[in-house]
Specification:
The complex is a heterodimer of chains A (about 300) and B (about 475). Chain A has about 300 residues and is of the alpha/beta class. Chain A has two domains: about 190 residues, Rossmann fold (3-Layer(aba) Sandwich); about 80 residues, no CATH class. Chain A is built from nine helices and ten strands. In chain A, the strands form two sheets. Chain A has a six-stranded mixed sheet, with helices on both faces. Chain A has a four-stranded antiparallel sheet with strand order 8-7-9-10, with no helix packed on it. In chain B, strand 20 and strand 21 form a beta hairpin. Chain B has three domains: about 210 residues, Rossmann fold (3-Layer(aba) Sandwich); about 80 residues, Translation factors (Elongation Factor Tu (Ef-tu), domain 3, Beta Barrel); about 110 residues, Elongation Factor Tu (Ef-tu), domain 3, CATH 2.40.30.10. The longest helix of chain B has 17 residues. In chain B, the strands form four sheets. A six-stranded mixed sheet of chain B has the order 2-3-1-4-5-6, sandwiched between helices. Classes of the chains: A alpha/beta (about 300), B alpha+beta (about 475). At the A-B interface, helix 1, helix 2, helix 6, helix 7 and helix 8 of A face helix 2, helix 4, helix 5, strand 2 and helix 6 of B.
């Protein structure tokens, strides 16, 4: 792999299927630039948002990225991930805004949940920031294969002034025609990775030589068990009494709030090993690692209606 | 038939989105290697009447191809038990929204992903209710193939013909009729042959390129992924085998169509004069040195380079997102079309289209709308609603007073700016359009340029459209 002047990795090899997905995503991102005044990419430094950023930079090469980045920081993020985020922003000369959940808690607009989980608290800072900054397109890395309510999500998804998602108001999307027209106060969430699967994402990361936060690869870590997941101790509150720490080889399949993002046992220390592990796995990404999706059968649908990503 | 389909052992080893059934890492690695040799992507849609067992078929396809993971299956088993069902209801795998689960119906297109060693699949699972025909149109719009479900006990019904007709209007090249619940007619070959014969005759009349019928039982898994031993009189492929092997021959000798989405101008110290035209090739192939015409202006230019973030390319073909560099500093912006000089379309301000009404709000003659065509957006009037299409008889009726949700009609559209429209081509990269409400942005209707019914029946002559009304205020 070699790198071009602006730091983009060049393609080593990719299947026709990955090339088709890449072209579709680039087409979507160029539509965003063509149809909206102030788009923003939601950037958590998780692998899907890293991939969206990579595709967006490819879409507008050799010009600078016409989008800024926004991170909703729960205050419980992995330090390795925040360091990676800041390095990507600095090296790419990108513009990043951070909405801190802690600020909303400090001035009383939000209150801490009894269980200490802050993932559900991201919605209010996200929607407040969208309104304050007048973002009209908010680009995210969600995929339709993640969860069954997301299987029905549009690529251009209309949200009302409160960020809410009404499945019955979504516009049919035919051919490659994406309709970004919206009334004042509304905005559109855009999902360029809609048609990618977890395996596609990893195969593409390998083919393009894309850097990720190191916690995606197997490493030794002090963890404790809660609700069938390996959690990392930290300021957010864990471990509680009766929960004991142990050192294990683990990696993260998703990256989110430390209080509810679990690690999986893994020996996969590089991207090829991760791909092999995913092919052999029997549990979906969210089922393995996200406590907040286990809340109920319609948990994701309810959170989307409230404006969650 | 058996010579063209795959060995069934290979077919059932699926390496899809979180596939299972692979024992060792090395086996997984071999499958990953095989995937890199995949024959690319098949986009297909499913359609059927209520109770034909479509969700069960899709659930069975995902389950038997090992694309369903253990936690998803656990959830479905728990729900089945909670409802007092004796067997696991696989349709629960694919009913996504709570309203759907509560009402036991499907209200929206859902997309599913799976892969086998030979191909990857994107499935648009569309509802079968009459009132949700707009979703069938949506799901079929990009489909290479449509699977239509029918119940062996009832055979070809009005809804079956409607789904076939919608697929034909959209130019879908392949149809697969899955004759479901064959177990409930005692696996009777005579019943299947009669249904397959009737459907094939109807679909051929619609000009469908290729039609296949397969007897299945989605509930029992007969002929869904693996071939059924209970149906020994049938020697064709299973549904999945057919999906894996159906031939997707691309039309390679079309003229270039390249809608410009965005103009890339870095204006940096290193690249002060760089000006590239970003877009996705809609048809044909482009190479440096090609002479092109820019529409609607009609100016000619020459392609000097095809740029990507991975470096320059010697050519780009249909579906590729690239950036074109031209020899002249032509005035070009989003919405313009770069076309091959041969057979380039002529920009017009009035044309006919076959549209499907997608919104609850009715569309009336004289409606002031926005037209979306390729990357172009312009003000437009739907000057007249010329003929309502009767999807059952496939004939044009009289001019309707307004279009209601799910109506298909031939209409006349006038635009403020000249648009280089041309007849719709399957897949919609050329000749597809949206009609948008300028007030709130609602997609009112989706359309195909030209008379799609006449395209199905070349012998039919279309009645002339009435003269356009004058609504100059909106267009000027």
């Amino acid at each position: 792999m070699t790198a071009t002047a602006d730091g983009l990795a060049t393609r080593r090899v990719a299947s026709p299927h990955l090339r088709a997905l890449e072209s579709e995503s680039i087409h979507i991102l160029r539509e965003v630039a063509g149809q909206f005044d102030k788009p923003v990419i939601l950037f958590s430094a998780g692998k899907d948002s890293v991939l969206v950023l990579h595709l967006a930079r490819k879409a507008f090469h050799p010009a600078p990225l016409p989008f800024s980045l926004l991170h909703v920081d729960t205050g419980h993020n992995f330090p390795e991930v925040l360091a990676f985020r800041d390095r990507v922003v600095a090296e790419g000369g990108l513009r990043l805004a951070v909405a801190k959940v802690q600020d909303w808690i400090d001035d009383g607009r939000l209150s801490e949940r009894p269980d200490g989980t802050r993932n559900p608290l991201q919605t209010v800072p996200l929607v407040d920031t969208i309104v304050a900054e007048k973002y009209d397109a908010v680009i995210g890395g969600a995929r339709r294969d993640e969860e069954r309510a997301r299987a029905k999500e549009r690529i251009f998804s209309l949200r009302d002034a409160f960020g809410g998602w009404d499945p019955r108001k979504q516009r049919p999307e035919l051919w490659g025609l994406y309709n970004g027209k919206h009334a004042p106060g509304e905005h559109v969430r855009v999902f360029p990775l809609s048609n990618w699967t977890e395996l596609d994402v990893w195969n593409y990361i390998e083919a393009e030589g894309i850097d990720l936060p190191e916690i995606y690869y197997a490493h030794q870590r002090e963890v404790f068990s809660r609700n069938g997941m390996w959690l990392t101790p930290g300021e957010w509150g864990g471990p509680a009494k009766g929960e004991t720490l142990q050192r294990r080889w683990v990696r993260y399949r998703t990256v989110g709030d430390m209080s509810c993002t679990g690690a999986v046992d893994s020996q996969a220390t590089d991207v090829q090993a991760v791909i092999e592990e995913i092919i052999a796995t029997r549990i979906t990404e969210r089922g393995a690692t996200r406590a907040d999706d286990k809340l109920g059968e319609a948990a994701m649908e309810d959170r989307k209606r409230e404006g969650y990503f | 038939m058996s010579t063209v389909v795959n060995d069934s052992a290979a077919v059932t080893e699926v390496v899809g989105a979180g596939a299972a059934g692979v024992d060792t890492a090395s086996e997984a690695h071999e499958l990953a290697q095989e995937l890199s040799h995949a024959r690319g992507l098949l986009r297909f849609a499913t359609a059927g009447s209520v109770d034909d067992g479509k969700s069960t078929l899709v659930g069975r396809l995902l389950h038997d191809s090992k694309s369903v993971l253990s936690d998803q299956l656990d959830a479905v088993e728990r729900t089945s038990q909670a409802r007092g069902l004796e067997t696991v209801d696989l349709s629960l795998l694919v009913d996504g929204l709570r309203a759907e689960r509560e009402q036991g119906i499907t209200i929206d297109v859902a997309y599913r992903y799976f892969a086998t060693p030979t191909r990857t699949f994107i499935l648009a699972d569309t509802p079968g209710h009459v009132q949700y025909t707009r979703n069938t149109v949506t799901g079929a719009s990009t489909a290479d193939l449509v699977v239509i479900l029918t119940d062996a006990r009832t055979g070809v019904v009005a809804q079956t013909r409607r789904h076939a007709a919608v697929a034909a209007l959209l130019g879908v090249p392949h149809l697969l009729l899955a004759v479901n619940k064959i177990d409930l007619v005692d696996y009777d070959q005579g019943v299947f042959d009669a249904i397959a014969g009737e459907f094939s005759a109807y679909a051929k009349g619609l000009g469908i390129h290729e039609i296949t019928s397969i007897p299945i039982s989605a509930l029992n898994g007969d002929n869904v992924v693996t071939r059924s031993e209970r149906i020994d009189w049938y020697d064709g492929p299973s549904v999945l085998e057919h999906l894996e092997t159906v031939d997707l021959a691309a039309d390679t000798d079309e003229a270039l169509r390249f809608p410009v989405q965005y103009v890339i101008r870095p204006r940096s110290d290193e690249l002060p004069d760089y000006r590239g035209y970003a877009g996705r090739v809609g048809a044909g192939t482009v190479r440096p040195g090609d002479e092109v015409v820019v529409l609607p202006s009609g100016r000619r230019s020459t392609v000097t380079g095809i740029d990507t973030a991975d470096g320059p390319r010697p050519s780009a073909t249909k579906g590729d997102s690239v950036t074109l560099l031209l020899s002249d500093d032509v005035d070009l912006s989003r919405g313009d079309l770069i076309a091959g000089v041969q057979d380039a379309p002529t920009p017009v301000v009035e044309f006919t289209a076959t549209v499907t009404q997608l919104a609850d709000k009715p569309l009336k003659p004289g409606a002031r709308t926005l037209l979306r065509y390729g990357a172009t957006s312009t003000r437009a009037l739907v000057t007249s609603l010329d003929h309502l299409l009767d999807i059952d008889s496939l004939t044009y009726g009289p001019a309707p007073e307004s279009l209601a949700l799910n109506d298909i009609a031939q209409v006349t559209i006038r635009t403020a700016d000249a648009v280089p429209v041309e007849a719709y081509r399957p897949g919609g990269a050329v000749g597809s359009l949206l009609i948008i409400d300028p007030a709130d942005g609602t997609t009112l209707a989706a359309g195909m340029v030209g008379d799609r019914l006449a395209a199905l029946h070349p012998e039919t002559t279309t009645p002339a459209a009435p003269a356009a009304e004058t609504e100059e205020d909106w267009l000027s």
